[in-house]
TrEMBL record:
Its cofactor is Mg(2+). Its EC number is 2.7.7.59, 3.1.4.-. It catalyses: [protein-PII]-L-tyrosine + UTP = [protein-PII]-uridylyl-L-tyrosine + diphosphate; [protein-PII]-uridylyl-L-tyrosine + H2O = [protein-PII]-L-tyrosine + UMP + H(+). The keyword RNA-binding does not apply. The lineage of its organism: Bacteria, Pseudomonadati, Pseudomonadota, Alphaproteobacteria, Hyphomicrobiales. Uridylyltransferase (UTase) activity is inhibited by glutamine, while glutamine activates uridylyl-removing (UR) activity. Residues 1-377 are annotated as: Uridylyltransferase. GO terms for molecular function: [protein-PII] uridylyltransferase activity; phosphoric diester hydrolase activity. It comes from Siculibacillus lacustris. Has four distinct domains: an N-terminal nucleotidyltransferase (NT) domain responsible for UTase activity, a central HD domain that encodes UR activity, and two C-terminal ACT domains that seem to have a role in glutamine sensing. This is Bifunctional uridylyltransferase/uridylyl-removing enzyme. Residues 736-818, 847-927 form the ACT domain.
């Protein structure tokens, strides 16, 4: 059997047979267990050597499809050798009957003669009639040999009639046999199956098969995530992955009756450049998949963060133009995924045309009549027509005649609220070169584009189509630079351009009132904004500066100042857009990382915002931005923090903060509480209000003050020096746990350690000391259960562990170490640790901001080290952005003063840097020690 040149040197099939035959000596047959062991050893040796050669060739030539073909070729050779050995030496037949025939057939992916290193081996053992003892024995021998080689084998044993019958009723079996490929055995038997399958199954069922496979594809996309721009994509099953290309080929082979994808050119489905794009996509995706399997030693299909760096290195990517090697690799991947989407669109367009050709004559006449009526209704000479309720071009020269039509068609689709015909989308992708500087600077084109961005209909849908066709990136080149750009972190779930489009969709949903229950303030504020289009343009541009050396917010502001006049914005509008882009992260940062009850926080934020209108704009933009990061990133607690920041800042911008002195506000807060306490005597009220210092009265809202008063009163009556309370909050998505205990510098550290052991994620903490020496600490932990009763029980378990820890019933360090033992930090990410000690962010406290790579037990280690440094924590604000932790502590020394000594600040910095990395300073010895396992 001749070997194609591309497979030369991979495996010596003839030599393998000779080696196996030599194992059978006179008097010892092939079924002997000792012989079988030797056969298996030879097969393992040859298989491993061949796989090593295939991997070396892949690293050298980076040909993904060729690698998959080489692996398939090696597997074919092994199966043929096993089959031949079985029928010659183990179960030989001297005079075979017509029933003792068999064709070993590859089906499924293996049937396409492509195989990934960890793929299943799908086999069909084809028989002429029913199973015979000989056939059963041979199949069993082959399967056990393959299993002993460590292969995963999917298999079926059927005769031709069974294959035909099952194919009619089962789509999976039909698709598997559609790709059936003869490997070895009785060739006429396989040819009979191919003939019967085409005649009795395929003919006349093309449309039903297409509908079923496209429905199957849609369901698969739902399972994997509807976006092809997920930052940890599934190479095989995800949208834009290999399975999408394979679905196209299945349909093509079934409907157009082609043997190879190259035949789709002759069928008029793909042009030659489009077919070449199909090949490039297939080769690139196969290369990634093969590298992933080789790197992990298993059938890994999800391109996780842990793998992305290694695959980028294997494929030869290097850092360039401000993008890391892994980011350049992933951008290439997402561009390929986008090409897969384009090819799907082109293919579906061809299918639709084929469907129209097969429409009965009367229906075709009515369709042409309807088109003429629609064309006339829109005016003679119009560049666009409605075609089956979708916008289409009136002729092939629509864009070449007037390139502004490349923008106008999207504006028209938005105005009429219709989708796009595949033919129009296909012509757009072929006309991108027409978008030059003349089109980009055309006043009409920019006015149309501005209408699209700020549309009251569905701007996300139209902008997404603009992006998919490539028009958006050509018309706004700065946006084109972020197309398919991946951010190598766990926080952002999508590429930068996908995040932009989703944020526009989120803002439109807010404006239409669809999210009023989830985000009530933004849903109210957006209707009071004076100029809504600056908000939409700012959101369209907010991350456009990413992927370059300069800070993306500042660079984005420069880009906004350049594009604003081009889009037709006034100078004032342009400046507002630029300000929003430059400051689009500020409100989120302040809300999640600063004490919102600290007057200085509000003053500093208000100085940045400067006007109530900008505050409204920034709040709406921030909400849309966070919600578009990914599922579950925006939650009730973040929404509450943003609302609190807004409500605290809005009166300040109106001059409200300067009207009342601090003492007057404390007195007013005391009166407000005493007026609200029902069933309390005047003596009780007077005694209670004296138990709190001024910061408590200024920082805690009235409902929580009432809860605290009731809680402390009951604990006092019960003579309890240690008490806890649990209150779940549904809307905010957190559970509030309040601890009343003797004041102690290590109290928060103990609470944090108990929460770490209990698996409760602290998102915020407020610490108060009463005048009679008690600590009133409130922590907010992320909610775990939807049902309040379940969450209440969970909160009580956490609070019980806190109480055991504080009474000494639980040894915390050992508990924490056991909890996090073996849980290593994410090795895929490299984030430098940073510690900032700042005295300007608060009038009364020193603010410590610690950021770096998150890990289990981090908050416990940090709070314990802060206690070792003899600092009191007044409040803690815990934020996690994917793999990055940002923890902020408001502290004083033991006398309640700021830390204003430079040497002391340096000491804090050094100790917390070590604590962040899991090594703290022993205050008794002064040497380094491990804090956690």
């Amino acid at each position: 059997m001749s070997v194609p040149k591309r497979f030369e040197g991979l495996i010596d099939s003839d030599g393998l047979r000779v080696r196996l035959d030599a194992l059978v000596t006179e008097g010892v047959d092939g079924g002997n267990p000792a012989v079988r062991s030797k056969v298996l050893a030879v097969l393992k040796e040859v298989r491993l050597a061949s796989r090593d050669k295939v991997q070396a060739l892949l690293l050298a030539d980076r040909r993904g499809v060729r690698c998959a073909e080489r692996l398939s070729f090696v597997q074919d050779a092994l199966i043929r050798a096993i089959y031949d050995f079985a029928v010659r030496h183990v179960y030989p037949v001297v005079n075979a009957s017509s029933a003792e025939r068999m064709a070993v057939t590859a089906v499924g992916g293996y049937g396409r003669a492509t195989l990934a290193p960890g793929s299943d081996i799908d086999l069909l053992f084809l028989l002429p009639y029913k199973q015979t003892p000989w056939g059963e024995s041979v199949v069993e021998y082959i399967l056990y040999m393959l299993w002993d080689l460590g292969l995963k084998v999917g298999h079926a044993t059927r005769n031709v009639e069974e294959c035909v019958r099952l194919s009619r009723s089962d789509l999976t079996i039909r698709t598997a046999i559609l790709e059936a490929r003869f490997i070895w055995g009785d060739r006429p038997l396989f040819d009979d199956l191919a003939l019967r399958f085409d005649r009795d199954v395929v003919q006349g069922t093309g449309r039903d098969y297409i509908a079923a496979k496209l429905a199957e594809r849609d369901e698969r996309h739902k399972r994997q995530g509807m976006s092809r721009y997920l930052v940890e994509p599934n190479i095989k099953e995800g949208k834009g992955g290999l399975r999408d290309l394979q679905t196209l080929f299945w349909i093509a082979k079934y409907f157009y009756r082609v043997k190879d994808t190259a035949d789709l050119i002759g069928a008029g489905v793909f042009s030659k450049p489009e077919y070449q794009r199909f090949q490039r996509c297939d080769d690139f995706l196969w290369g990634i998949r093969c590298h992933m399997h080789f790197a992990t030693g298993r059938a890994e299909e999800r391109l996780s963060f842990d793998l992305q760096r290694e695959i980028a290195a294997r494929l030869g990517y290097v850092e360039k133009a401000g993008l890391r090697a892994v980011e350049r690799f992933m951008k290439h991947y997402f561009l390929v995924a986008k090409d897969v989407g384009d090819l799907t669109l082109i293919f579906c367009s061809a299918l639709e045309e084929e469907h129209v050709k097969q429409t009965p004559a009367l229906n075709r006449f009515l369709d042409r009549f309807t088109r003429r009526r629609r064309r006339k209704a829109q005016g003679e000479g119009t560049p666009f027509i409605l075609d089956h309720a979708r916008i289409n071009v009136a002729g092939p020269d629509v864009f070449s005649r007037d390139p502004v039509n490349l923008i106008r068609i999207f504006h028209e689709a938005d105005r009429a609220d219709v989708d796009f015909h595949p033919d129009a989308l296909r012509l757009m992708t072929r006309s991108l070169r027409l978008i030059d500087d003349d089109v980009r600077n055309d006043a009409v084109a920019n006015a149309l584009f501005l209408d699209i961005v700020a549309s009251r209909n569905d701007p996300e849908r139209v902008l997404r189509r603009m992006n998919e066709t490539g028009v958006l990136g050509r018309f706004v080149p700065d946006f084109g630079r972020i197309v398919a750009m991946m951010q190598f972190n766990m926080y952002h779930h999508y590429t930068v351009d996908e995040h932009h489009l989703r944020s526009i969709g989120e803002l439109a949903a807010v404006e239409k009132g669809r999210l009023a229950e989830e985000i009530p303030l933004a849903s109210e504020l957006i209707h009071g904004i004076q100029n809504r289009r600056v908000l939409y343009v700012a959101l369209f541009l907010h991350d456009v500066g990413k992927g370059r050396m300069e800070d993306h917010s500042l660079l984005g502001g420069k880009i906004a100042r350049k594009l604003g006049p081009r889009f037709g914005l006034t100078p004032a509008e342009t400046e507002t857009v630029a300000w929003l882009v430059e400051n689009h992260l500020v409100m989120s940062t302040v809300a999640q990382g600063r004490d919102l009850n600290d007057r200085r926080t509000i003053e500093t934020f208000a100085e940045i915002v400067q006007s109530p209108e900008r505050l409204r704009l920034l709040h709406c933009l921030t909400v849309a931005d966070i919600r578009a990061v990914g599922p579950g990133v925006f939650n009730g607690w973040k929404g509450q923090l943003l609302r609190t920041l807004y409500y605290e800042t809005e009166p300040y911008l109106a001059g409200g903060h300067s009207q009342v002195t601090r003492d007057q506000r404390v007195a007013a807060a005391k009166r407000e509480l005493t007026d609200s306490l029902e069933g309390w005597s005047e003596t009780e009220k007077k005694a209670y209000v004296e138990r709190h210092y001024a910061p408590y009265w200024l920082r805690v809202d009235l409902p929580r003050k009432i809860e605290h008063a009731t809680f402390i009163r009951q604990a006092t009556r019960d003579r309890k020096l240690l008490a806890t309370s649990v209150i779940p909050h549904v809307f905010e998505g957190v559970t509030e746990i309040t601890v009343l205990a003797d004041d102690h510098p290590r109290l928060l550290s103990a609470i944090a350690g108990a929460c770490a052991v209990a698996g409760a994620n602290i998102v915020d903490a407020q610490i108060y000391t009463t005048t009679d020496g008690l600590a009133l600490d409130t922590i907010f932990v992320g909610r775990e259960f939807a049902d309040d009763h379940d969450e209440q029980r969970r909160g009580q378990r956490v609070s019980a562990l806190i109480e055991k820890t504080l009474t000494g019933a639980e040894r915390l360090p050992e508990q924490v170490e056991r909890k996090i033992a073996g849980r290593a930090r994410l090795k895929a990410f490299q984030i430098p640790t940073d510690v900032i000690v700042n005295n300007a962010w608060s009038d009364r406290f020193t603010v410590i901001e610690v950021s770096g790579l998150d890990r289990p037990g981090l908050l416990y280690d940090l709070t314990r080290e802060i206690s070792n440094l003899n600092l009191n924590i007044a409040s803690a604000h815990i934020a996690t952005f994917g793999e990055r932790a940002v923890d902020v502590f408001y502290v004083t020394d033991l006398f309640g003063h700021k830390v204003d000594s430079r040497p002391r600040e340096r000491t804090i910095h050094e100790h917390l840097m070590r604590a962040f990395d899991g090594v703290a300073q022993d205050p008794g010895r002064g040497d380094g020690r491990r804090l956690t396992a």
